[in-house]
Amino acid sequence: MKKRIIINGSSIKDIPTFYQEINRIFMSDENWEIGQSLDAFNDLLYGGFGVIKSGEAVELIWNNSEESRQSLGYAVTKAYYNEKLKPDSPFNKEMFREKLVALENGNGETYFEIILSVITDHPTIELILD
Question: Per the similarity annotation, which family is this (predicted)?
């Protein structure tokens, strides 16, 4: 039997509130939280800490997903990429420049779509967008 986890998409207004919701749901029994990082979110989905046990089958229901899709859409994603491109940023600027150009040209992923890709890379997680 799969563990059922529900994300409240109405709580997600931007990237920080996405991670607040993720920490509220996945890290409720921990005395620490994951940071605002797609890598950290990816690690969380493997299990072994938080509410998912290592390799555990999960049914992840994302309620109000269309609201989240809008909140984590083009504008938020563009701001995210521009933040990564600041002169003092330690990130791979060339990669983020390419991602920004793709987004501006209409064929790049939004932050919401990136999150969905991260989730679907985990075969033990069944994602249901509601």
Answer: Belongs to the barstar family.
Q: How far is CA 25 from CA 50, 51, 68, 81, 129, in A?
A: 9, 8, 16, 26, 16
Q: Which amino acid is at 84?
A: K
How do residues 62-109 score in pLDDT, each as one tens digit?
999 999 999 999 999 999 999 999 999 999 999 999 999 999 999 999
Which H, E and C letters describe the chain, residue by residue? Answer: CCEEEEEEHHHCCCHHHHHHHHHHHHCCCCCCCCCCCHHHHHHHHHCCECCECCCCCEEEEEECHHHHHHHCCHHHHHHHHHHHCCCCCCCCHHHHHHHHHHHHCCCCCCHHHHHHHHHHCCCCEEEEEC
Kindly give the interhelix angle for 74-84 and 111-120, rounded to the nearest 10 degrees. Answer: 90
Domains of the chain: 3-72+111-129 (3.30.370.10), 74-109 (no CATH)
